[in-house]
Amino acid sequence: MLIIGDHTFSKDEIYSNAPSAEPERQLYFCSCVKEIVKARFESDCASGEALLRYGSEQLQKMTEAGAFATFHIETYGCQMNAKDSEKLGGLLIRSGFMEVDTEAADFVLYNTCTVRENANLKVYGHLGYVHSLKKKRPSMLVGLCGCMMQEAEEVEKIRTSYRFVDIIFGTHNIYKLAELLFDRLATGRMEVDVWEGTSEIVEDLPADRKYSFKSGVNIMFGCNNFCSYCIVPYVRGRERSRDPEDIVAEIRRLASEGVKEVMLLGQNVNSYGKALGSPISFAQLLRRVEAIDGIERIRFMTSHPKDLSDELIQVMKDSEKICRHLHLPVQSGSTRILEKMNRRYTKEQYLSLVDRIRAAIPDISLTTDIIVGFPGETEEDFQDTLDVVRRVRYDSAFTFIYSKRSGTPAASMEGQVPETVVKDRFDRLLREVQQIAAEVCCRDVHTVQSVLVEEKNTHMDGYVTGRMSNNTLVHFPGTEDLIGSIVNVYLEESKGFYYMGHREG
Asked: Minimal CB count within 10 Å: which of 53, 187, 207, 382?
């Protein structure tokens, strides 16, 4: 039996009273979890255990926040995961928890990534650490969610070798956190709820945003591209676009709350809207977002080169709000390797696209992703990649050594490149990228640029840090009250990858 408020219920009674529709169902379970942790907290306060566990300062903060337990979320991977963690945090706050910046919390949740093997290894390293914490305090809860949990072998490994983990769920049902947490609290058993896929998109979940003045906004989920090296379509599922009315309504609400900048998120935003009952292009969605009062900056990620349309280029050219920054992953400069990657464009097509973008938007900042050492890559293929880097002259590039992911076609391809060769190529590529970026990123020195102030500078007293439209960082003298404002800054000096400046006006 469970005590919820002033009443005692059986688990079955609580479930029979739960709404069937979402998000009302999860908000109901948030209230149930809150009553459970509240009762335990009050008991611990009465016994003095709460003071020993939290200390007087944190206990005071919890009391002021109306919280009865603490949580910590470790987020790995992309902006999609970061946005998911905001929703997970929102559900936990609604359930009576307060966020802390340490894994020594009442509930620790790892939102995992599995794009590269190293990401999985990091998770297991953290699990070893948190297990030592849980041995000292068995009531502590540990959860795992995200992309890594969509791999059946990883889930089985955790179920059998990491029995101290309490909750496991994947990418398709993050909105069910409150219900899963209630189940764990009610039964004491490990909860495992991993879905192979879903067509459902749950709107209006509470979210705990990191910034008050900018926010990510999911416009779609999943991916249909099946690049041969990538596991994302298998763990994120097929593409599902949100209704444009829901997206616009969310951004209007964000604007009313003081948000100035939105980042539209999708594995490939260029595919947005194709499968909706009333199809709409990504460019058309951007026009609707631009019309929203209060929104001053619009960013988006990620844009696949294979279907970046001339319509989108025109919208970016005409827009006063869309930021002058485009992340355009090339992955390789070799047409032969691009075909093996199933990228569906050639080196020449990519360079032609860059030319069209630059002709329309001369001040655009281009960034990219590049993989070195893909199976079968020869020195000639690698030289093609260097050629693209030299011709495009990226502002920055995320460079990766190819990581074999089981379950992807590339994992079984012949011609795996020796580690020493890959390392040599990676180092050569990195030197080229960094040298060009240092030259490119100084182009705006001695000009005045609009900067969105994001935070107090942690390394220089009396300074703040902001970001230009093209995504370049700027440090300049200022006070914390500027955070969230867009101000004009004179760029005095380029430091290669950031500017030093002073406020104008």
From this structure: 187
Sheet with 97-99, edge to edge strand ranges? 97-99, 69-75, 107-112, 141-146, 167-169, 191-193
Among 186, 189, 178, 176, smallest CA distance to 149 is for: 176
Question: Tens digits of per-residue pLDDT, 340-369?
Answer: 999 999 999 999 999 999 999 999 999 999
Query: Closest Cα partner for 276 from 224, 312, 241?
Result: 241
Q: Is 118 exposed, middle or buried (0-12, 13-18, 19+ CB in 10 A)?
A: exposed
Cα–Cα distance, 181 to 199 (Å, whole number): 23
- At residue 301, what are phi and psi to the nearest 5 degrees? -155, 145
Is 304 strand, coil or helix?
Answer: coil
Amino acid at 419: E
Task: Characterize the bridge pairing of strands 191-193 and 167-169.
Answer: parallel
* pLDDT digits 0-9 by tens, 82-112: 999 999 999 999 999 999 999 999 999 999 9
- Of 306, 117, 123, nearest in space to 229 by CA: 117
The confidence score (pLDDT) of residue 423 equals: 97
| Residue-level length of the chain | 505
pLDDT in the model for residue 118 = 78
Whole-number Å distance between alpha carbons of 346 and 335: 5
Cα dihedral sign, 233-237-243-246: negative
User: How many Cβ atoms are within 10 Å of 459's Cβ, its own excluded?
Assistant: 7
Long-range contacts from 36-42, C-beta under 8 angstroms, 24+ separation: 36/2, 36/3, 36/4, 36/182, 36/185, 36/186, 37/68, 37/69, 37/95, 37/96, 37/97, 37/106, 37/185, 38/68, 38/96, 39/3, 40/68, 40/69, 41/68, 41/69, 42/68
Q: Which helix (H) or strand (E) holds 227?
A: none
Q: Which residues of the chain have pLDDT under 50?
A: none
Do 237 and 171 touch, CB atoms closer than 8 A?
yes
Task: Express the helix, strand and coil content of the chain in percent, nearest 5 each.
Answer: 45, 20, 35
Give residue for tokens 């093996």: 340
Which of 282-292 are b and which e, b meaning 16 or more Cβ less than 10 Å from the residue's Cβ?
Answer: bbebbeebeeb
Helix, strand or coil, per DSSP, at residue 398: strand
Cα separation, 252 vs 265, whole angstroms: 16
pTM of the model: 0.90
